[in-house]
Amino acid sequence: MTTVIDKIASLIANSLLPGEEPVTIITRKLVLHVAKDTAENSTGKTIQIGNSDFTIPSICELENNPNCDTKKVISLKAAVTSFPLYTTVQGAGNVSPQSSTVRIDLSNEKGERMSITDSSTPIEITIKQNSATNVKSYYISPQQRSSSGLAFQSLDITKDNVAIHIGLVPENRSVQFMVFIGLSEFPNLDNKSWDYVQLIPANMSLASQLNETSDEFKQLHQVFLDNNKVNNTKGKLYIGIRQCELSEVDKFIYGVNDNDIPKNQVGWGVITSNFSITTSTSGCYFIEDGGNQWSSNGCTVGPKTDIRQVQCFCTHLTSFAGGFIVVPNKIDWNYVFSNADFLSNPTLYVTEMTIALVYIVAAILARRKDRKDIAQIGVTPLPDNDPNDKYMYEVIVFTGMRKNAGTDSKVSFILSGDFDETDVRFLSDDRRKILKRGETDSFLMAVSRPLGQLQYARIWHDNSGKGKFASWYLKYILIKDIQTKEKFYFICNRWFAVEEDDGQVDRLIPVAGDEQMVEFAHLFSQKTAKNLSDEHLWFSVIARPPQSRFTRLQRVSCCLMLLYLTMLTSAMFYEKVPSTDSPNAIKFGPFYVTPEQITVGVMCNLLVFPISFAVVTLFRKSKPKNKRPSRIQAAIRRNVIKEDVSLSQVNPQIGSADFKDSSSRAESSMSSLYKGLDNLTVSTRTATPCSKPGTPHSAISQMSRDKSKKSKCQMPWWFTIIAWLLLWISVGVSAFFVTLYGIQFGDTKAQKWITSMIISFFMSVFITQPIKVFLMAIIFSLIFRKADDEGEEATEDEDECELYIDEEWLHPPTDAVSYGAAKPRKIAYRPPDATVLDQARERRLKELKMYDVLREITFYAFFLWVLMVISYSHRDPNAYWTKLSLENHITNPGDLWVDLRKATSYDKFWNWTLTGLVPGLRANNWYNGDYPFGQRGFVMDRVNRIMGFATLRQLRVSSGKCVLEDIMKNVINECNIEYSALAEDTKTYGTGWTPYNETLANTAYHYQWRSASDLEGNFFLGPMNILYGGGGYVFQMRGSLSKLEEDTRQLMSEGWIDKYTRAVFAEFTVYNPNVNMFTVSTVLVEFPEVGGILPSWRFESIKLLNHHANALVFQIVCEVMFLLFIVFFIFKEAKKLWKERMAYFNVFWNCIEALLIIFSIGGTVIFFYRLVATSELTTRFRESHGNKYMKFQNIAYWNEILTYFIGMVVFLASLKFLRLLRFNRRMSLLASTLRYAAKSLTYFFVVFFIVFFAFVQFFYLVLFTQLKDWANFIYSAESSLQIILGKFDFRSMRLISPLIPIIFFIFVITNTFILVNMFLTIVIESFVIVKADLEKQSNEYEIVDFMVKKFKVWTGLGSTEKDEKAPPTPEYLNNELSVKSDEDYRGFSDRMEKLLLSISKIYFDADRVESTSFSQTWKAMLKDNQLKSEFLKHKRQGRGVNKNDWINYGHH
Fold first, then answer.
1. Is 962 left (phi over 0), alpha (psi -120 to 50) or beta?
2. What is the DSSP string of 986-1024?
3. Does the pTM of the predicted model rise above 0.70?
């Protein structure tokens, strides 16, 4: 870039003529100045370019040649950049990022560069900083050493050839310090060894007269050592401080009489004042020829250097830049160890003890949880396993992390494969609770033979859990074939609940294929859960997977190590990076990253990441010293009852398998496998814990080993010891240095540092790290799409036992009954009863609604309490009395001459101003004539302090706005209109409203119009319904009482109020410290165009300094809680609005909730605006000691709006409580009545308002000119409503017009007797209908009955819920199935016998039939049917039947 600048400057210089006007090019980042003239005209003067300037000596001094040619032509080329150049060369780190770069070159007439080195007079260059460097001030409570008599501070000098700046300001302005500087060693008073000494302030008498913010004051309190005095010293610079005795004030000067400083004496120079200290270094640097290095040779830092600029004196020309490096105020080791007591650093030690205590408690709990996790790793054998079944499957169930995802219900399932299907199986464990939220449970299932490739699983539960534990959220199920190591996934991610999802508790889940395993939804949930529970170091302490070898105790210890390492890096670089913007920053929209921030970030990560990563990796990858026993073997031992069986005995008997229940397809499928096994070579081996001696390896085990995956990279068990050593070494070292840094910071700075650490810690744990987890899960789910293997780490840490094919039972049973437990009766799949599910769903929904109601009532009652606390904290019971007292002092009610209400003319107004207002604004002499000492600024009551000063503000109308009627123009010269914003006069006038003359300047302040923004004013609505603006002509009521009276009389004599005046405001604000209240006073006197004067006033006592009360913390906590409530309401209602769309607004209570949120947000915004505005005005009052203009009317206006908002919030919140009473029968009946009558009432009110406003218009038009109650339409409507209520002044109305009594009578009859009674009739009729019709009533009161019933059960006051049918259990279903079958069979036989008996009685002899058995009766009926058929046959053939034949038939 410098090459381009040089070329541009050279082109410009070549085009210029000597003596021609210089060329200056100005851009946002660069200013280029090129001039061409003789040497005597080009040098020896100061040139300012951009934000920097430089002074070049004469050409002879530059060349160090007294006989130089001053007439020769030279070109001056200077460039100033707003950022440092050459940022990548050596020494660039010394240059401040905020520094500008000044480049100065001189060239001869040929354009050749002149070499300027070792000039006799240095070139003065002032380099501005683009932004003031953030130099921190440290508040010090000095600890003086008795051995040396000094209090020591130290400064680290890390840069070459720098100047030192030390600012020191005593808290007590009446003391003077003696500051000793020692380079590389401590100053010593006894042997008078120091390198520099200075008094602070340098001139005590002058400093006492200066303002603390002035540059001269700062100069007197600064110790400056230029780079020549520092003499390129690096390392420690020691600062010794002691207080001057009275005899030493302004006595000693360095190098003159500093040798007369007395030695250290006991009780001499004791420091009695705390002080603030700032330390910094600065330097002047130039780029050497060739542009490859920044150097400071030949440059000296000047005394005018401060945080805004660097003054340099250099003896050569090139590119210059300033360095201003902020160095933290570090304390030496001696100071650290001498101030390491607890009382000096309570915050540091309490924090470290708290961390240690929390770690100990967490470590104990983590260790206990680790022991419990061992039980979670185990495999539970299913209780319905048959001891004769030898084929094993591991069933792993993953319960979701949803709220209330765990269940106590009994879960059943059926697995179906290519070869076979299981019976109904149950998941249960009598030793531990299973199917908990977020847990993984393993079960061992035994079947008689392989199921083949699994196809689907049917899963359901009996909904027997209590309350929220009846529901279950299943993520997925993993089925492992123990023999073949095959895995089958059944992905669900659905609820089994009557109140969630689709309300089903029975689902058919197909086996997941490869596509389902890599779907985004499944992978994302799997990755997120795993990363949060295992990879997130802090969360995994609680949610660690039980099978992980990285224990909870190790995780807690790693958290401790990470915390201390982070604290160490934070302390090392605390306040090292400047907060201001840098020209070298890398910007991303509104964000930017400076090189310093990047460097600090990289260094912090280099310190923290390698150690923490190494320790965590060692813990994760180190194998256990002794492997755990096989989970499968332990489960099989639990599976066999009464007899001990080894793992090898449950091997499927492939060679002699007899599948009695198998189908032909299954037998043919397995035959090929059997034949292949016959050809395998069988070898024998010695005995093992899992086999008998000499048993051959099984074929399936051999295949399993061949298919086994390559083991992951693991480390020996003793690497865990190395990890523990690294961990505790890191904790010890980092804790040691953290303690040192904390002592160096001091307690005040340590509090800020620890607070920032806590905030960053919680931000990292709860925001940054979870976001990183989710982003990584999204990336892996979308890009890599690889399913994780579950439980592989647990399998690697277990013993492996092989299966053998020739082993038999150690104690083979003689029959199924004599060995172990009998196999449970098979239970066929029966789908859940829809009726039972509906009943359970209704009961559960009632429970949920009951909990919602209780939660809503409790939550809302607490919210209402917080709201009431905040609302009434803005109100003070003293407000009315404060307002009344001041109002009486100003308006003087009842006074014969000074009563403001009687000021009805110009003279009376001025009389009130002089005798009422002006004396009321000043504290007069006491009743005994004493002068009111100490009450300057107080008003007449002596308890209210005026804020600033009072003002009289006049609003006028411009002349010529009114148009006279033609008939009156000869009689009247002028008319004036009423006030409006368009008619307001805004001109500047001379004294007495004469025309303004700029030449004579005949105006005064109160004749110059000021806008509303200038006066910080706002609109004001007067009693005549005129909206007045916030600007106008202002008279400042300042000075003593006598001067104020004199100025007011002068104002009156000038005719300040005239015919164009429409309003005069007297405005002021007072503060009563006794009750901590401001009273904003506004007295308005209107001068309407109709003539006369209309006075009014408004005194508002408001509480603006709420947070200065005794209950500060409590009030702030309540306000924060209110904001949290509002955020919760916003989230809840936004979610409901998104779900219901526009139907959301059809519900009345939703509208109430929305209005509550809107008014709460509006009130919150106004509250913070009022807080900021009040802070600005009180700051102005404090800085000016109450002598500046300040107007609180605008704050009072917004405070009034805030009052309305608070009132609406309280109103709506209280109104919402009616909704909580909807469960009461009578309240529900009332709401139902209004809802049923809504349509009729709507029509009624249409008719009512038409009739009502017809009368209102008549009364208004007839009475508004005579009576005040009917002066406008609003008043007329209010008075008409009062007539309906029976409150009216009929006599005054009757005197106005003879028509009034007639219309009044009609109005009363129509509205009071007819319409009002119609309204009552509609409501009563609706009430009767709703009360009679139960369907029109709300049934929500049933929840109350349900709640009362539940409460009685919980408290034992009522009976248990025996009347409710309990869900059927598996045992019940098992027994019920057989019993019901027998009962059904017997019942069927009895009914058939009764049927046949009844038929027999009709066709046969009853006596004979009753005496026979069922079989005999059946035979008789069959024979009878044969005879009857023969008889009918004869009859159809036409042959007659005689009597004997009929008798014979009867006998048969």
1. beta
2. ---B-GGGPBP-TTTT---GGGSEE-HHHHT---EE-TT
3. no
Q: Helices (DSSP H) in 1054-1187: which residue ranges?
A: 1112-1140, 1148-1184
Residue 168, CA distances (Å) to 178, 277, 825, 1295 in order: 11, 5, 93, 86
What tokens appear for 29 in the block? Answer: 């980042």
Residue 956 above 90 pLDDT?
yes
Percent of the chain with pLDDT over 70: 71
Question: Which structure tokens are listed for 302?
Answer: 């000047």
Side-chain half-sphere exposure of 305, counting CA atoms within 13 A:
33
Q: Find out whether 489 and 496 touch, Cβ atoms under 8 Å.
A: no
Structural contact between residues 52 and 38, judged by C-beta atoms closer than 8 angstroms: no
Q: Is the pLDDT of residue 1368 over 70?
A: no
Residues 6+ apart with CB under 8 A from 978: 957, 1026, 1062, 1088, 1089
Q: Round to whole Å and give the CA distance between 160 and 299.
A: 12
Average pLDDT over residues 1-10: 73
pLDDT tens per residue across span 54-105: 787 877 877 777 778 777 888 888 888 877 776 666 666 667 666 778 888 8
Q: Tokens at residue 559, please? A: 């958290």
How far apart are alpha carbons 519 and 527 in whole angstroms? 12
Closest by CA to 1210, choosing from 1150, 1159, 1171, 1151, is: 1159
Say if CB 273 and CB 71 are below 8 A apart.
Answer: no
What is the residue whose two structure tokens read 């020896």? 44
> Which runs of consecutive H residues, i.e. helices, occur in 717-779?
719-763, 769-779
Q: How far apart are CA 681 and CA 710, in angstroms?
A: 25
Tell how strand 379-381 and strand 440-447 pair up.
Answer: parallel
Q: For residues 601 and 594, give the distance between their C-alpha atoms in angstroms, rounded to a whole number.
A: 11
For residues 244-278, one letter each, b for 16 or more C-beta atoms within 10 angstroms of the residue's C-beta and e for the rest, the string is: beeebeeebeeeeebeebeebeeeebebeeebebb
The DSSP element (H or E) to which 277 belongs, if any, is strand 275-287
Render pLDDT for 356-407 as a digit per residue (tens, 0 to 9).
Answer: 999 999 889 888 887 877 766 777 888 888 878 888 898 989 888 888 888 9
Q: CA-CA distance, 588 to 573, in Å (whole number)?
A: 24
Query: Comparing C-alpha atoms, which of 627, 402, 697, 624 is closest to residue 525?
Result: 402
Task: Give 950's pLDDT tier (boundaries 50, 70, 90).
Answer: very high
What is the phi-psi region of residue 503: left when phi exceeds 0, alpha when psi lies from -120 to 50, beta otherwise? Answer: left
Residues near 1123 by beta carbon (within 8 Å), at least 6 away in sequence: 1164
Gap between the Cα atoms of 167 and 1398, Å rounded? 123
Residue range 419-464, pLDDT digits in tens: 888 888 888 888 788 888 888 888 888 898 888 889 889 999 888 8
Alpha-carbon separation of residue 1440 from 263, 1076, 1429, 1430, 1431 (angstroms) = 166, 131, 15, 13, 10
Which residues, 6 or more positions from 684, have their beta carbon under 8 angstroms from its beta carbon? 694, 695, 696
- Would you say 1218 and 1211 are in contact if contact means Cβ atoms under 8 Å apart? no
Burial class (CB in 10 A: 0-12, 13-18, 19+), 400: buried
What angle in degrees, to the nearest 10, is found between the helix axes of 1148-1184 and 1193-1220?
150
Token pair for residue 912? 């009130």
- Alpha-carbon torsion (1149, 1151, 1155, 1157), positive or negative: positive
Q: Are 254 and 196 in contact (CB under 8 A)?
A: yes
d(CA 782, CA 777): 8
* Peptide bond connecting 383 to the previous residue in cis, omega within 30 degrees of 0: no
b/e sequence 701-739, b meaning 16+ C-beta within 10 Å: beebeeeeeeeeeebeeebbeebeebbeebbeebbeebb
DSSP annotation string for 1392-1408? HHHHHHHHHHHHS-HHH
Residue 139 near residue 276 (C-beta atoms within 8 A): yes
